[in-house]
Structures are given as structure tokens and as C-alpha cells.
Design brief:
binds (2Z)-2-iminopentanedioic acid; 12 strands; about 50% helix; about 15% strand; binds NADPH dihydro-nicotinamide-adenine-dinucleotide phosphate; 7-stranded mixed sheet; 5-stranded mixed sheet
């Protein structure tokens, strides 16, 4: 499967031990494909069991989360925290509340987060957590009781020098607020650095809410400029999802001159040939927490179509998948190609299946993996921790400028590594190799731990 025997052997072991974890295997395989280009140069890795250690999370917690719903019925969910790798800093990464959450998804996200955090230039290791709890249709009181129960177990595993969770799918400012409140109550300490994505009144950073979406567009603009001497100006853009990442990606690329004509949720997508009205969209999603179909009910000239995958049939120049893993398969990617799309930049984590990546790359589209292009969120979480440590808060523009600089340097690191590997412009290879080399160096320096 791989040309290198060491990669083959380690991958075969992962495949055997983690046979029931398809998303984790998918993430490992993609990275190993890229490492093929550097592993021969590092015979010391095999001797130190580096890859064997890298594919094993340092620690996995799985726990019961009991809570009582508004009818007085006891419910039980499963909670997780995967402390994947702490070679370059304390574990850092989001919490996901979604019914699909399982160990495979937690591990793939922790694995990706480790490489992503390495690319940010900040000292953060990788972790991820969450629960199969479904926030949809739950009252505020139910969400609060669930978050309190979740934190009642999680608190003993986290801390600013140990592990700092944040948001991800289904976990936004409201949930982080409830989680922080319960943490503070249990430990009797205002330890701001224990969670990021906090509200602005209790230690949150300006621009963290916007950071993943904005960062995605800063990265993409850099790639468009450097590789194609082009920009968002005049481009038609499709953004899947309509959550935190999608909303602010849509806002930033519109500001940079793109026209976003389609967005989605897990049930369907909207098409608005005039460009999505973001004030309306933010009102529907942030204030009313309603389905995206409401947009088509309220905006003349727009349409709603059932089936979120069909969004990839909408003609566009640039595609930003910002919903969830494996949301675009080979057939979807082929539709983008057939419609003349020039670039796919990932906002979500692993939104393209391996088949979709093959098609996008084989047809010469620009492509960036989420671990590079969506790293602005966690990078700004790192900036939130810095502000908490120095007990100061920076202005929106200061944080945004730092974020912009970080995204530029991530792009440069990916591009430089792609050149180094003899694949100039292959940002997937560049991200995997650049992200891994820093973690590898730190792991080698710290001995067999
Ligand atoms: P949100 O919960 O705010 O939004 C998620 C969006 O994706 C919703 O529109 C949701 O639709 C849709 N969605 C979720 N699951 C699926 C699915 N299985 N199929 C189709 N659509 C789905 O999450 P975020 O915007 O925070 O996260 C989106 C992606 O970005 C995730 O992959 C996340 O890991 C990644 N990411 C997030 C960062 C952050 O800072 N928040 C940072 C970096 C990456 P519906 O409402 O119908 O469920
Ligand atoms: O996938 C991700 O990078 C996130 N969900 C953000 C993690 C963080 O710690 O801000």
C-alpha cells in the first residue's frame, strides 16, 4: 500500500487494532501518504517507534453523562475526551455535541488537531472531545443541565497547563458559558485559560467567534494570489453548512469580493442567485436557531432544495465545505469539476472523502485540507489563552491582524514544505509534512514517552 515498509507495517497495525474506526483510519492513511515523501530521510524515527507512538492517543477518557430532561425523565449520554498528543504543548481542541459522535470520530479529530495546532506556530498539543448528545430541539435549561453534568466529569482532566477544550459542532458560546460556570463552581477558581471561546464578559477574545471562517478566507486568498495570481473578486462561492464556520466564511469572502450563492444545513440547501443576505441568515441561525429553509420562505428569489449533498451541483468558482466530515464524495467533486470550479478550500475537518480529494487534485483545482485552512479558530483560541495569561484583552483589529499573519505563515509553511517534497503547490502534502515534522522533532527530543 505504501512504498515505505515502516509506514506499511505501522498502518497495518493500526488497521488491525482500530478496525472499527473508519474515520480514524482515513485520517491516518491520508497523512501517511504524504509522509511517504519524508520518512526515508529519517531512519531514526523507526528506531524510536515514532509512528507507532504517533498513531496512539496519549490518553482516552470515556464517561457517562446522566441528566434530567424537562419532563423529569433521566437521560444518559456518552462523553469523551481524547488527549491525543502533548509533544508541543498542552492538549487543545474542541468539544463536539452531535448524535454521530463516537470514538472513531473523536480520535480522527484529535489526530488532525495535533497536526493543525502544530501548523499554527503556537505551543499547543492536540485533543478533542464531545458527546453523542443531540442539542437539536433541547431547551436552554436542558442544554445547561447537560453541560453541567458533562463538566462534572471533565473538570478533573483539564486545566490551562493540561488540556483546554473549546467549541466545535453543536458547541458554541452558550455551551461554553455553561461549561465554564460549572468548572468554576467545582474548582472554586477563575481559571480563564481552561476553556476558550468564552463570552467577552468573562475572558473571551474578540474575533474568536469569527476566526475560523475569517482565517479560512485569509488562507484561501493567499493561495489564490500566490498560485493563480487571482482573488475572490467577482467569484461565485458555495459554502456548505450554516454554522459558526460557514457563517463567517461567507461574511469574509463576501467582503473580499466573492458572491456566496448557496449554503446548507444537514437537511437541505438554499440557493440565492443575488448572493445570500447575511443579515437575514445570521438572524435565522444565531437569533432564531431555525432551519435554513426559513431563508427561502422569507427572501424572494431564493430557493430551498432538500438534501444537503445536492449543494455541490450548484455552479461555482470556489467551494468551501464547512459542515462535517465526508460531506463531499467523488461524485460531488466531479460535479464541481464539470461546472468549472477552480478551488476547494476546506473549512470543516476532513469534509472530502479520499475519492473526492483524488478528483479535485487530478483535475488541477487548488485544494487545501482543513488542518491548514481552518486552523484560524484554534489559533485564535491560542490568542485567547495568551490574553487570559497576561490579564489583558486586545482589540478586535489587533486579534484579527494576528490571525491574518498566522494564516499567511501557515500558507507559507505548507507551500514551502510542498516544494521541499518535490510537489510544489500540493498544500495537502505540505500541511501534513510541515505539521508532522514539528511534532516529530519534539517527540524525538523528549524520548520514549
Ligand atoms: P456548527 O454546529 O456551528 O455548524 C455545523 C453546521 O454543519 C450546521 O449547519 C449543521 O447542520 C451542519 N452539519 C453538521 N453535521 C452535519 C452532517 N453530518 N451532514 C451535513 N451537515 C452537517 O459547527 P461549526 O461551524 O463550528 O463546525 C463546522 C465544521 O468546522 C466541523 O467540521 C468542525 O469540526 C470544523 N471546525 C470548527 C471550528 C470552530 O472554531 N468552530 C474550527 C475548525 C474547524 P444542522 O444544523 O442541520 O445540524
Ligand atoms: O477543529 C478545531 O480546530 C476546533 N474546533 C477549534 C478548537 C479550539 O480549541 O479552538
Amino acid at each position: 500500500m505504501f512504498e515505505n515498509e515502516y509506514l506499511n507495517r505501522v498502518y497495518a497495525d493500526v488497521e488491525r487494532r482500530d478496525a472499527n474506526e473508519p474515520e480514524f483510519l482515513q485520517a491516518v492513511r491520508e497523512v501517511f501518504d504524504s509522509l511517504e515523501l519524508v520518512v526515508d530521510r529519517h531512519p531514526e524515527w523507526e528506531k524510536a517507534g515514532l509512528l507507532e507512538r504517533f498513531v496512539e492517543p496519549e490518553r482516552v477518557m470515556e464517561f457517562r453523562v446522566p441528566w434530567v430532561d424537562d419532563q423529569g425523565v433521566t437521560r444518559v449520554n456518552r462523553g469523551y475526551r481524547v488527549q491525543y498528543n502533548s509533544a508541543i504543548g498542552p492538549y487543545k481542541g474542541g468539544l463536539r455535541f452531535h448524535p454521530s459522535v463516537n470514538l472513531s470520530i473523536m480520535k480522527f479529530l484529535g489526530f488532525e488537531q495535533t497536526l493543525k495546532n502544530s501548523l499554527t506556530t503556537l505551543p499547543m498539543g492536540g485533543g478533542k472531545g464531545g458527546s453523542d448528545f443531540d442539542p437539536k430541539g433541547k431547551s436552554d435549561a436542558e442544554i445547561m443541565r447537560f453541560c453541567q453534568s458533562f463538566m462534572t466529569e471533565l473538570y478533573r482532566h483539564i486545566g490551562q497547563f493540561t488540556d483546554t477544550p473549546a467549541g466545535d459542532i453543536g458547541v458554541g458560546a452558550r455551551e461554553i458559558g455553561y461549561l465554564f460556570g460549572q468548572y468554576k463552581r467545582i474548582v472554586n477558581r477563575f481559571d480563564g485559560g481552561v476553556l476558550t471561546g468564552k463570552g467577552l464578559s468573562f475572558g473571551g477574545s474578540l474575533a474568536r467567534t469569527q476566526a475560523t471562517g475569517y482565517g479560512l478566507c485569509y488562507f484561501s486568498a493567499e493561495a489564490l494570489k500566490h498560485l493563480k495570481n487571482d482573488s475572490y473578486a467577482g467569484k461565485t462561492v458555495v459554502v456548505s453548512g450554516s454554522g459558526n464556520v460557514a457563517q463567517y466564511a461567507a461574511e469574509k469572502c463576501s467582503r473580499l469580493g466573492g458572491k456566496v450563492v448557496a449554503m446548507s444545513d444537514s437537511q437541505g440547501y438554499i440557493y440565492d442567485p443575488n448572493g445570500i443576505d447575511l443579515v437575514k441568515l445570521f438572524d435565522i441561525k444565531q437569533k432564531r436557531r431555525a432551519r435554513i429553509s426559513v431563508y427561502a420562505d422569507e427572501v424572494p428569489g431564493s430557493e430551498y432544495h432538500a438534501g444537503c449533498r445536492n449543494i455541490w451541483g450548484v455552479k461555482c468558482d470556489i467551494a468551501h465545505p464547512c459542515a462535517s466530515q465526508n460531506e463531499m464524495d467523488a461524485g460531488d467533486a466531479q460535479k464541481l469539476v464539470d461546472n468549472g470550479c477552480m478551488a476547494v478550500f476546506e473549512g470543516a475537518n476532513m469534509p472530502l472523502t479520499p475519492g473526492a480529494i483524488d478528483i479535485v487534485k487530478a483535475n488541477g483545482l487548488l485544494y487545501s485540507p482543513g488542518k491548514a485552512s481552518n486552523a484560524g479558530g484554534v489559533a485564535t483560541s491560542g490568542l485567547e489563552m495568551s490574553q487570559n495569561s497576561i490579564r489583558m484583552s486586545w482589540s478586535f483589529d489587533e486579534v484579527d491582524e494576528k490571525l491574518h499573519g498566522i494564516m499567511r505563515s501557515i500558507y507559507k509553511a505548507c507551500y514551502d514544505a510542498s516544494v521541499e517534497c518535490g510537489k510544489p503547490g500540493d498544500l495537502m502534502v505540505g500541511a501534513n509534512v510541515a505539521g508532522f515534522l514539528k511534532v516529530a522533532e519534539a517527540m524525538m527530543a523528549q524520548g520514549v514517552v
